[in-house]
Specification:
Chain B: One of its GO terms (biological process) is SCF-dependent proteasomal ubiquitin-dependent protein catabolic process. Chain B: Keywords: Ubl conjugation pathway. Chain B: This is SKP1-like protein 1A. Chain B: Residues 108-154 form the SKP1 component dimerisation domain. The complex is a heterodimer of chains A (388) and B (246). Chain A is an alpha+beta fold. Chain A has a domain at 14-56. Chain A contains 7 helices and 25 strands. In chain A, the strands form 6 sheets. In chain A, strands 12, 13, 14, 15 and 16 form a 5-stranded antiparallel β-sheet that branches. A 4-stranded antiparallel β-sheet of chain A has the order 3-2-1-25, with no helix packed on it. Chain A is globular and about 75 Å long. Chain B has 246 residues and is of the alpha+beta class. Chain B has a domain at 5-121: Potassium Channel Kv1.1, Chain A (2-Layer Sandwich). A 4-stranded mixed β-sheet of chain B has the order 4-6-7-8, with no helix packed on it. A 3-stranded mixed β-sheet of chain B has the order 2-1-3. In chain B, α3 packs across α5 (91-103) and α5 (91-103) packs antiparallel against α6 (107-121). Classes of the chains: A alpha+beta (388), B alpha+beta (246). The interface between A and B is large, with 49 and 53 residues.
Chain lengths: 388, 246
């Protein structure tokens, strides 16, 4: 073979470029788009964007560069990404956030954050945002808008359709028999009303996204010869098939006394779920883990945590790669990591009125999305209603 | 036959013939397919690979086959190091290896070589990437400006030596950071990025660029003065004196 200059673009087939690009972090890809027109069109392509996402998720599972998204703030809210390492090092400060302090974060998926705005009392505004590439979309108004008695929302990804979906379940009034369900699809940019499941919402907690399914605690009122009792379970909504599914809780948790509380968190690198049970005096909590996702027999009570000093029980946010628990303490909203077996505590100095943490993977999702008139119109609808 | 010493003959584009153990050769899915669907005794012609490159590739395949089969006592870390040394070649050879790994369908080698190129791209600015890989810039000046503006998010300088986060900047704050003279300094203060263009020009600058957060009006901070002090071994200590402007 004659020697030739290493003229990059001239003899590499496209698939090799894509193979190389898949291994690059998002910021490098941003710079690569400025290298040449052909590189730009290779990267700004929806198929590449989704291969990049799956490649990065695979990398995350094999490497140690797990990222956490952290929202916190004392005076002003701050957003940052942290590495899941010993010091919980700050990986990046996120300067761009398309909202102010009225928002709650529903969840994160493939680099997209889903936010919910409480500002307008009768309408919940939802925003999808990719903070690294600084792009966001305001969702159109849901079909059902009212001030609900209870609301729970979950955000996830449908890999079959390469679509991002938002599930909203509301209960209008205390005495209502059924909940109301709506599903938003980013691809179609619209909401559609779904037939509700026969279970009620247990709490206002946002749903937990794991294995392409969003999960929440639901209950059924069971009539036992005139007296009612509540039977609790986990409900899931599969984003691929758009169906509800039931996951039984460990037996002990199915008939929970009123003073106790339970909530779901992700487990095992987002491949399964765990349930936290707060005892009736909130003096301790038990952590139940579903070792094999979907298999009820594998529910295991892994840890019991006592309180941290005299403070009320902290909220368990999730697990770190090394098995430590991320806790949000009650009063100061400090982020701490606690080794559940040795009870060693690491304080990260992340303190604020509202602290939120979730797993995060960088991506280019929304890069190829043209934020056209239709999207900005969504925002205008809200403003109209507020002015009336 | 079926014995482990079955050999396969490979002929390269420059007419060199290699005789290799079957277990090594079938690391290439292409060779495996041709072997299983053709005449086992004939020579397999690898059209697009030269003798030099194939020789290197066979070294790679042999090493990996032997380590997986336990024939060689080599730990995963040692194999990882061996791989790292394997790709320490000139750029032409690296690109030839990529092309060959792609056409011979050797997944782990393609992964390794593409990761090497990816590592060469990480952290480089677009101009540097173009120079390293001899890529022609086909953007017009306006188009390039537009695409850089569109992808402004990729160009923020965060992290690295010389990055300092100031939690709060009140009036007359004295803040300092240590940096080496080669780097740019990035000072991030409560949602603002105050960026220094270059260390050498610092002493002369009366003010520095201030980037505001898009949606919140923030009070711009203007640098009052910067003093620098040499702390040895190529590092300097910078003192920023900020004054708030309403």
């Amino acid at each position: 073979m004659m020697s030739k200059l290493a003229m990059f673009p001239y003899y590499f087939p496209e698939e090799i470029f894509l193979e190389i690009f898949c291994k690059l972090p998002v910021k490098s890809l941003g710079k690569c788009m400025c290298v040449s027109k052909s590189w730009n069109s290779l990267i700004k392509n929806p198929y590449f964007i989704s291969s990049h996402v799956s490649h990065q998720s695979k990398l995350r599972r094999t490497n140690d560069n797990n990222l956490f998204f952290v929202m916190t703030g004392r005076h002003e809210v701050e957003y940052s990404l942290h590495s899941d390492d010993q010091e919980f090092r700050k990986y990046a400060q996120l300067e761009y956030m398309p909202f102010d302090n009225h928002h709650s974060i529903v969840g994160a998926c493939n680099g997209l954050l889903c936010l919910m705005d409480f500002q307008f009392s009768f309408d919940s505004i939802f925003i999808l945002c990719n903070p690294i590439i600084r792009k966001s979309i305001t969702l159109p108004k849901p079909c059902l808008s009212s001030l609900p008695y209870k609301i729970s929302v979950g955000f996830g990804f449908d890999s079959a359709q390469n679509d991002y979906k938002l599930l909203k379940i509301t209960k209008k009034g205390v005495l209502d028999k059924y909940v109301e369900v709506e599903l938003y699809s980013l691809k179609r940019n619209c909401w559609k009303i779904l037939a509700p499941p026969k279970y009620d919402l247990y709490s206002d907690d946002f749903m937990v996204y794991v294995n392409e399914t969003v999960h929440w605690i639901a209950y059924e009122r069971v009539n036992n010869e005139g007296s009612y009792s509540c039977k609790l379970l986990i409900l899931g909504f599969d984003m691929r098939d758009d169906v509800f599914k039931e996951i039984m809780l460990p037996e002990r948790l199915r008939n929970l006394p009123h003073q106790s509380e339970i909530y779901v968190i992700p487990y095992d690198e987002l491949s399964s779920i765990a349930v936290i049970e707060l005892g009736s005096l909130h003096a301790e909590c038990d952590i139940w883990v579903m070792k094999k996702y979907g298999v009820v027999e594998t529910w295991t009570k892994m840890y019991s945590l006592g309180k941290l000093g005299t403070e009320p029980m902290p909220r368990v946010l999730g697990f770190r790669k090394n098995g430590d628990l991320m806790l949000r303490t009650y009063d100061n909203l400090r982020l701490v990591s606690r080794d559940p077996e040795s009870h060693e505590i690491d304080y990260f100095g992340i303190q604020g009125r509202r602290t939120y943490v979730c797993n995060y993977t960088e991506s280019l999702v929304l890069l190829d999305r043209v934020i056209d008139g239709a999207m900005t119109e969504n925002r205008a609808n809200y403003a109209d209603k507020a002015n009336r | 036959m079926g014995s482990t010493s079955t050999k396969i003959k490979l002929r390269t584009s420059d007419q060199k013939v290699f005789e290799v153990e079957k277990a090594v050769a079938v690391q290439s899915q292409t060779i495996k397919y041709i072997y299983e669907n053709g005449c086992p005794d004939s020579v397999i012609h690898v059209h697009s690979v030269s003798g030099d490159i194939l020789s290197k590739i066979l070294d790679y395949c042999k090493k990996h086959v032997n380590s997986a089969a336990g024939k060689e006592d080599i730990s995963p870390e040692e194999l990882y190091e061996w791989d790292a040394n394997f790709v320490k070649v000139d750029q032409n050879t690296l690109f030839d290896l990529i092309l060959a790994a792609n056409c011979l369908k050797i997944e782990s080698l393609l992964d390794l070589t593409c990761q090497t190129v990816a590592n060469m791209i990480k952290g480089k600015r677009p101009e540097e990437i173009r120079t390293t890989f001899n890529i022609k810039n086909d953007y017009t000046i306006e188009a390039e400006e537009a695409v850089r503006r569109e992808n402004k998010w990729a160009f923020d300088m965060l992290g690295g030596v010389g990055t300092m986060v100031i939690e709060e900047l009140a009036d007359d704050t004295m803040s300092k950071c240590v940096t080496n003279t080669k780097s740019r300094v990035c000072v991030i203060a409560a949602n603002q990025i105050v960026m220094m263009r270059s260390i050498s020009k610092l002493a002369n600058k009366k003010s520095i660029d201030v980037y505001k957060q898009p949606q919140n009006p923030t009070t711009p901070r203007i640098k009052e003065s910067v003093k620098q002090r040499n702390v040895g071994t190529g590092f300097i200590e910078l003192f920023f004196h900020f004054k708030c402007k309403m």
